[in-house]
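To whoever is on call:

I kicked off a structure prediction for a single chain this morning and the downstream step that reads the tokens threw a length-mismatch warning. I double-checked the sequence; it's 168 residues and nothing unusual in it as far as I can see. Pasting both halves so you can look.
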Amino acid sequence: MEEKVDRKIQEMLEQEIIEPVTGPPEWISPMVVVPKGKDDIRLCINMRYPNQAIQREHYPLPMIDTLLNKLKGAKYFSKLDITSAFYHIELHHQSRGITTFMTSRGLMRFRRLMFGINCAPEIFQRSPIGIEMKQLKMKMRLKSRKANYTLTGKDVQNRLPSQSATKL
């Protein structure tokens, strides 16, 4: 397991998702390793205490009841999993310290928005990526609930996106 964690940390360093911490940290959160499929893992950071210090900017997210009502008449469904989409949003340098976590290689912190920050869905929804997803949603009857999107339609042709619409 330790080798998988080390590989995942190296991968995230190379992709500039995380960076080593230099200097004394403001926060240190524990890391939890969760199996993902047969051979992969997910590094989860317990942000319970740092989340209490984050001032949330509320941004309206769709209500599940509203989304369920819009599914009436749909017979076909497709799911777009954009869980890693948060990594496309860079954190301001001053905001990175709150994401610090301990690894066997020392302290690391996120350079990118991470899953576990309580305001991540709102930040994503108002980002250019989130706005693009909203425009796509209008065109394709796309229903959103956090990091998963569902395409619906009364037949397969109305459900499938055009080739240009699938490029996110």
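Update from on-call: the warning came from a stale cache, not from the record. Cleared it. Sanity check on the structure: Helices lie at 2-14, 48-53, 64-70, 120-126, 128-140, 156-159.
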